[in-house]
Amino acid sequence: MDYNFREIEAKWRTFWAENKTFRAEDHSEKPKYYVLDMFPYPSGAGLHVGHPLGYIASDIYSRYKRLKGFNVLHPMGYDSFGLPAEQYAIQTGQHPRITTEQNIARYRDQLDKIGFSFDWEREVRTSSPEYYKWTQWIFKQLYNAYYDNQTDKAEPIEKLIATFENEGNTAIDACTDFEEVFSADDWKGYSEEKQNSILQEYRLTYLADSWVNWCPGLGTVLANDEVVNGVSEREGHPVEQKLMRQWSMRIKAYAERLLTGLDKIDWSDSIKDQQRNWIGKSRGASVRFEVDGFDKKIEVFTTRPDTIYGVSFMVLAPEHPFVDEITTDEFASNVAEYKRQASLKSERDRQSDVKNITGQNTGAFAIHPFSGEKVPIWIGDYVLASYGTGAVMAVPCGDQRDWDFAKHFGIEIKNIFKDIDISEEAYTEKDAVIANSDFLNDMPANKAIKTAIYEIEQRGIGKGKTQYRLRDAVFSRQRYWGEPFPVYYKGETPYLVSDEDLPITLPEVDKYLPTEDGEPPLARAKKEDWNHFEGDRMEYNTMPGWAGSSWYFLRYMDPKNDDEFVARDKVDYWNNVDLYIGGSEHATGHLLYARFWTKFLYDMGYIPFDEPFQKMINQGMILGNSAFHKVVDISVKVEYLSHGGDDSEVTVNVPMNYQFLPMEEELDSDGMFIFDVLSIEGDANSNLLVKRVLSDAKNLNEGYELKSFHLKELNVNFTPTLKRIPVNCIDKNDDIILKELQNNEFYSNMIATSEDNTKYHCLREVEKMSKSKLNVETPDYIVDKFGADTLRMYEMFLGPLEQSKPWDTKGINGVHNFLRKLWRLFHDQENKVVLDDGEPTKDALKTLHKTIKKIEDDLDRFSFNTGVSNFMICVNELSDQKCNNKQILEQLTILLSPYAPHIAEELWVVLGNEAGTISYAKFPEFNEDYLVEANYAYPVSFNGKMRFKLELPTALTPQEVEQEVLAQEQAQKWLEGKEPKKVIVVPGKIVNIVV
RNA sequence: GCCUGGGUGGCGGAAUUGGUAGACGCGCUGGAUUCAAAAUCCAGUUUCUUCGGAAGUGCGGGUUCGAUUCCCGCCCCAGGUACCA
User: Fold this and answer.
1) CA(A953)–C1'(B64) in Å?
2) Which has the least CB within 10 A, A79, A347, A550, A957?
């Protein structure tokens, strides 16, 4: 073998590990560069080829930056708290820590094989007590802080308490939903418990009864971003709304800064837009409508205060607190019935049932704050209790839902838009001129909005307001395998554990299930099971999955520090992440929470930056190529007679199920299975089904002799169904490899109707790669067969990093051959090194410098796929030139080393360099002089169509070029004797002649 | 519906500021080598063609000497999101 990748790669992997080649220094004269991957959850399934895609890209970039003279921080770790290990623990009793450790070992093994330049000394695991000690500590900081709207940052809670003691809460503008007013004296008179509960209303993490997404299937609550279409994101269990006492994070306080911060970071528009939509800022006004005959005011939020004269009714959410009180006797039973119906509908139904308009009149009226007219108050479930105030002023002419509602129930539709027809639908554009609206008449909408808000504030019926869709994030989970809270209770009042008692480690429990009383699993721990116990009890909840991942990028800077979460001098040096690579699925979860915590830690003065990830690239998914084949289900009931050693006769009735794998010719034109092929008539030995049943019957009845036998029942489903075939049982022509399939335990009841492999051609379909879809391809297999360098380059060669693309091993030979071709530049037929020490040729220099330029450009714009192409072009050209010049090959080797580090290390030594030094070699310098040519082959086009090329000196002026071109015989031919209308000469590019 | 991407040979894809459309690789076809196969090497490979050319980057228009690239209007695909007032 010429290019022995197995030997080479094993050798350099060991070398890097032993020499700690990729250790990052915390302080350096070099400029720093921080390249981060989203750390993985170590699942039991191991890595498939999609996982390393982003890691390969970030590794290439890290190695490139090292060559460019940067001190690079490129760490890796594990997001190792999570549900799957806990579910496994519930099923098997194995401690999640053990499962997790096993999975991490497997991940590490797989990662190591790919040759990543991680600094493994900095590894972090969110589930290790040394790590979560600091997650608990950050929680404490959040608890001891509130958000001051005046300073526009988080402040210590002591500052708030001092203000309460001196001035009460009127002097404070803080982020809270607390509306009661108290004086300094009131405050001082409150009990500790009362003070504590008021403070909860201000703290950045707080305990409150809140409506949560309760998932009975998982026995825990979920955050909004973990719920998709009313079911849990990962497992698909239904989710319902439930009022529970939970820890929450006051992320709302940061809504505005999370929005504006997006402008200064280099992320994709799609992720930024997702975050903007999630935060959901809308500007408008809150307006209070008096209820006729009650001392009550309904507050609504509207983005269109300019349309207030178009209000012809109001709609409250069925859960709105006023509903029962204001409903008239006449409508009481209908309203009660409507409320009941609405409560029965799951969130999911309510969301999906958009077209169906429902509602109910309450009989009550509100007073229009400007016109004084009475407008009816309705309830309807299209108004959400959880958004805004749970009530809307309905303007049917300007809002399609209000219009539909009004039409459906025959409510008046007022037109307040000048010269606009609203008889067929509402007019929702903000560009109309207002009419029939008293003081707003003849104003364009945007002016009318401002005027209306001014007038609303003047009359004291409301005020201009900014509303956010973003909700505070629930921070408790009723699970075992997560960070315990640094919290204990005296009665119902929570207290923080002091810093010197951290971490509160996970206590051992007998089972990982909730208690009989429905308490979380930690409630099973006895007092002595806790490493620290205070008060009446410890907190039973654990933190959600996103707790540990919200700050892990900081810990890599100082992973072993036992005194601080990160030392200030280290975080000052490394600063924020320069390049973050990971999937876009975390847009509204991890990426938002990490930004939130970063801003908080910045506010508190612990870190010098308030955006964690300066530039982010979202790699696309690698999709699997699932295989399907038609199968026919057959169930058989067999009755047979046998007798055992004692001569006793036994009649046995056995139901058996089989699946037939039919050949294409065994299906008729409608795709129906032709029964003939398994007719039980005829020779038993030649009939596959009979043969199979006989052999199974024998096995079933061991020790007995089979005497007679007949099929009692035979059911055939003549319509074949498509069945997934594991992709490792498919050959490169998409035909099933029968031997492989028959070895698979899940296919043991399958009978192929022929022994010939080529008869079973599979349909392929591109889907998400997953274990359940039987389309998983592992990197281990590729590394074993082709080597890590081939895997790295091939994954990059598949297509643009950010694009989703199907995995297809067909092209892998091309990349592997490229590396072999590279090897052959250095070696002769006998695999002996043959290098030329002399001066390089002009052609070779040109090829090299062209490549330097392209590779560098490609890396700078993260175009790794074209990078691989350019290496191929380079090696093809050098091969054609028969170039084995040492200087050229040395530069090429450095250039290639980020992509294919193992072979580069090997060739680097072949070239006579010291082992291991290539990682910190100097990136080749591009010199344009080598590309300067005396001549250029001008493409000459006529009316934009390229007709021929003409080689001309590059020094010619445009006029000279024009003359030369027109003097050509070919040019005259294309002119057909006519005079050219115009000749355009772009020097060094193109000549275009207009005829 | 809205937002963000995207649509180029048989396939993955390239064309960075408007300037030779299809780089590079796969696959396929033919040839060389071989007893044979694998591997390797060479040539060809957008389509149609009367072999002169003609058409061609989802569709229809436009701007331009020149458009995959810019503008307008559609269609389709992927991802996100939604009674958000």
Assistant:
1) 28
2) A957
Q: Look at the domain A787-801+815-930 and name its fold.
A: Isoleucyl-tRNA Synthetase; Domain 1 (1.10.730)
Largest Cα–Cα separation, chain A: 112
Q: Which of residues 267-326 of A touch strand B (CB under 7 A)?
A: 268-270, 273-274, 277-278, 280, 282, 284, 301-304, 317
For the segment A413-450, what is each residue's pLDDT rounded down to a tens digit?
989 988 888 888 888 878 788 888 889 899 888 889 99
Residue A143 scores a pLDDT above 90:
yes
User: Which CATH architecture does the domain made up of A281-468 adopt?
Assistant: Alpha-Beta Complex (3.90)
Per-residue pLDDT at A378 exceeds 90? yes
pLDDT computed for residue A961 by the predictor: 85
- Is the distance between the Cβ of A798 and the closest atom of strand B smaller than 7 Å? yes
Class of domain A933-994: alpha beta
Q: How many Cα atoms are found within 13 Å in the side-chain-facing hemisphere of A555?
A: 30
A73 bridge partner residues: A34
HSE-up of residue A707 (Cα within 13 Å, Cβ side): 12
pLDDT band per the 50, 70, 90 thresholds, residue A941: confident
The reply to whether the CB atom of residue A605 sits less than 7 A from any atom in nucleic acid chain B is no
Nearest to A766, CA basis, from A664, A979, A950, A623? A623
Strand B–CB A954 distance below 7 A: no
Answer yes or no: is pLDDT of A551 > 90.
yes
Answer yes or no: is pLDDT of A514 > 90.
no
End-to-end CA distance of chain A: 61
B6 closest protein residue (CA to C1'): A803
Q: What is the pLDDT of residues A595-607, one digit of tens each?
A: 999 999 999 999 9
- The mean pLDDT value for A875-899 works out to 93
- Contact by Cβ (8 Å): A235, A410: no
Proximity of residue A384 CB to strand B below 7 A:
yes
- Say which nucleotide is closest to residue A733, CA to C1' distance: B27
A778 CB and strand B closer than 7 A: no
Q: Provide the sign of the torsion angle of the four alpha carbons A931, A933, A937, A942, taken in this order.
A: positive
Q: Name the phi and psi angles at A400, rounded to 5.
A: -65, -35
By percentage, how much of chain A surpasses pLDDT 70?
93
The predicted pLDDT at position A349 comes to 57
How far is the C-alpha of A867 from the C-alpha of A314, rounded, in Å? Answer: 61
Q: Is the pLDDT assigned to residue A645 strictly greater than 70?
A: no
Question: For strand A577-582 and strand A613-618, is the pairing parallel, antiparallel, or unpaired?
Answer: parallel
Average pLDDT over residues A495-507: 95
Q: What is the DSSP string of A339-396?
A: HHHHHHS-HHHHHH--SS---EEEEEEEE-TTT--EEEEEE-TTS-TTSTTSEEEE-T
Protein-covered nucleotides of chain B (CB closer than 7 Å) are 3-5, 11-16, 19-21, 23-27, 39-41, 54-55, 65-67, 78-85
Q: Any alpha helices (H) in A881-921, and if so which ranges?
A: 886-896, 901-910
ipTM value > 0.90 = yes
- What's the confidence (pLDDT) of residue A682? 52
The predicted pLDDT at position A757 comes to: 65
Q: Where are the beta strands (DSSP E) in A22-124?
A: 32-37, 71-73
Say whether the CB atom of A241 is under 7 angstroms from strand B.
Answer: no
> What is the spatial distance between Cα A236 and Cα A228, in angstroms, rounded to a whole number?
8
Selected from 3.40.47.10, 3.30.70.560, 3.30.300.70, 3.40.50.620, the CATH number assigned to the domain covering A34-127+546-622 reads 3.40.50.620
Lowest-confidence pick of A527-541, A725-739, A831-845, A886-900: A725-739
Where does A74-183 have alpha helices with state H? 83-92, 96-112, 129-143, 157-167
